[in-house]
Amino acid sequence: MTKSLLKIYPLGHLSLALVEWVLLAWAIRLWRRSTSLAMIVLPIVLASISYDNLVLAMGSLIGEGDLLKSLSMVRFLLHFLVVPLFIVIAVELAHRAGAVWANTIIVRVLSWVLALGLGGFEVATQFVGLELVPVTFAGTLRYTVAEVSAPPIVTILVNLFVLLIGIGIWVRLKWPWLFVGTLVALIGNAVPISRVGTLVGSASEFVMALSLLLTERRTQFVRAQLGSGEKTTKVEGWVEG
Predict the structure, then answer these.
(1) SS3 234
(2) Chain-centre distance of CA 203, in angstroms?
(3) Does residue 3 register a pLDDT over 70?
(4) Which residues 6+ apart lie within 8 Å of 25 measured at CB?
(5) Measured in whole angstroms, how far is the alpha carbon of residue 153 from the centre of its chain?
(6) Which among 14, 17, 109, 218 has the fewest CB atoms less than 10 Å away?
(7) Cα(158)–Cα(1) distance, rounded to whole angstroms?
(8) Residue 142, strand partner residues
(9) In angstroms, how far is the first alpha carbon of the chain from the final one?
(10) What pLDDT, in 10s, does the model give residues 5-45?
């Protein structure tokens, strides 16, 4: 393996970590403009995936041992807890886009119940008793699961749920980017880490987070049009801008 490739992976993860903090600041700014609940949750997700990338970038510098293993345990815990929160963000974006089914408080509360329930389920079944072993790849050192017993069902289901929301927003708002970003994440997480390492999956998660932010910005634009009295139409409960 060439020396340039050995540098690309750690630098790639470090770059993603830094850019994700920029996205976090942007998410807070969008929340201050709209008080959107989605923009309260998304900074939590961004902070988590930024931490994930930072640990992956610094693993080879920290070195094998208890410190890196502990940091990695936190990395897995955050992953199990945070991934289901994409459900909350997607439902809130659907609500802000004008979806009738997402306009009831019951549905919005249920999205939290489902997200927290899935997070608790993941912690109970995947995190408790988790055994990690050190693995090196392309200049990175990370601790990963000793034995993978099953595919990440919850992650796949969450991505498919957000994908469906993305289709709805695409059809009604003529805005395809949430669908595209989620599809990229779904494909990126399906790529075998043993062959390509962690950078592809991390980059795809970044693309998905960016698409969520852009979609929130789009909903703000559409709602501003409604507020200013510009001509809009409603199709099957979705506001079309």
Answers:
(1) strand
(2) 11
(3) no
(4) none
(5) 15
(6) 109
(7) 35
(8) 135
(9) 50
(10) 567 889 999 999 999 999 999 988 888 887 777 778 888 99
Which residue, 132, 130, 140, is CA-closest to 197? Answer: 140
Residue for token pair 């997607």: 90
pTM of the entire structure? Answer: 0.86
239 three-class SS: strand
What is the predicted pLDDT for the residue at 240? 37
CB-based contacts of 83, cutoff 8 Å, min separation 6: 119, 122, 154, 155, 158
Report residue 232 as tokens: 């809009």
From the list 222, 236, 128, 234, the residue with the least C-alpha distance to 175 is 222
Write the CB contacts of 24 (distance below 8 Å, at least 6 apart in sequence).
43, 46, 47, 50
Total residue length of the chain: 241
Which residues, other chains included, contact 26 with Cβ-Cβ below 8 Å and sequence gap of 6+?
Answer: 213
Which has the closest alpha carbon to 103: 112, 94, 111? 94
CB 140 within 8 A of CB 198: yes
DSSP string, 22-49: HHHHHHHHHHHHH--THHHHHHHHHHHH
Q: Where are the beta strands (DSSP E) in 9-138?
A: 132-137
Q: Map residue 142 onto helix, strand or coil.
A: strand
pLDDT at 230 over 50: no
Q: What is the pLDDT of residues 35-85, one digit of tens each?
A: 777 778 888 999 999 999 999 999 999 999 999 999 999 999 999 999 999
- The mean pLDDT value of the chain amounts to 86
